[in-house]
Amino acid sequence: MTEKINDKKDDKVLLNKKDVQKSFWRWTFFSHSNYNYERMQSSGFLFAMNPILRKLYPNKDELEEAMKRHLEFFNTEPHFGGIIGGITIAMEEQKALGAPISGSSINSIKTGLMGPLAGVGDTLWQGTIVPYYALFCYQFVYRWQLIWSLVLCCRDVCNYVDDCLPALDERLLLRTRRSTEHFTR
Questions:
Q1: Residues 6+ apart with CB under 8 A from 162
Q2: How far apart, in whole angstroms, are the C-alpha atoms of residue 85 and residue 66?
Q3: What's the whole-model pTM score?
């Protein structure tokens, strides 16, 4: 009976666990590495999907179409965005196997999920976990254990700086332009 189960292969699979994990780690660490104001996280999403797409679409034209599909606007909460990546990987694999899935339906699923998952993720991370984490850290300040409080609160400071850097970069760029205009007159 075991031989019959192994001989019958109804589900075709092009990707393995290592491929999916590679995409997950790429999303986790690089989702905001090239964050821009036109397409938000789309380049990070494409970077996470790149090894998957290259394995699924050996034809250059199909690969180019898939890459363009994932360069459209995408913005969600990074911790919960991995769920969208997993669903997209499954849909891309079925499309590569010949299932009647269009590129627009893949983008529709991504677009439909990015808002609700961002709302849930933002509520949990910025509204619940980070404040409780900060309260936990600040109790050490109250007890005069300053070194531990700095170590534990480092994450909060890094997140704050990461959120403020784009605005700071814009101000510095504007200030640099003004100073160069003064010299060119």
A1: 32
A2: 14
A3: 0.67
Report DSSP letters for 4-30, one per residue: HHHH---S-----HHHHHHHHHHHHHH
Residue 155: CB partners within 8 Å, gap ≥ 6? Answer: 133
φ, ψ of residue 28 in degrees (nearest 5): -60, -45
What pLDDT digit, counting tens, does each position of 8-21 carry?
Answer: 344 677 889 999 99
Q: In whole angstroms, what is the distance from residue 141 CA to residue 148 CA? A: 8
DSSP per residue over 145-181, as a string? Answer: -HHHHHHHHHHHHHHHHHHHHHHHHHHHHHHHHHHHH
Q: Measured between alpha carbons, how far is residue 135 from residues 62, 83, 129, 142, 157 in Å?
A: 51, 29, 10, 11, 14
Residue 40, SS3 per DSSP? strand
Q: Which two tokens stand for residue 35?
A: 């964050």
